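Moderator note: this is an archived Q&A kept for reference. The question asked for a predicted structure of one protein chain; the sequence and the answer are reproduced below.
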Amino acid sequence: MINLTNALQQLREERKQAQLQVEKFDQAISVIESLNGSVASRKSARPTRIVSAASRRRMARAQRARWATARKPPQSAPAGNASAGAPKKHLSLAARRKIAAAQRARWAKVRAQAKKAA
């Protein structure tokens, strides 16, 4: 029992010495960091951004304007036009037929390769 008490006392003494050594390391690290100019390298590598009050007002005004345009209801289209912008562009019948024929040819090629592989 006496051996256990002595061992426990010795372990506590070693822990206390280790804590003192860690505190010394922390102090040395903080001194080196203060010489280097960095306040706390653990927190963030990027410095905090300082914005003036005037800039914050401009940013807030711009964001309010963006929200106002986003909330604005869409304008109604004129009576004769389907959309408010430029008139829709239509493909001619010949152009649509060419596109359809080209697509059929592509699918035929895909099917032929699949048949060849099987």
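Archived answer notes: The CA atoms of residues 105 and 111 lie 10 Å apart.
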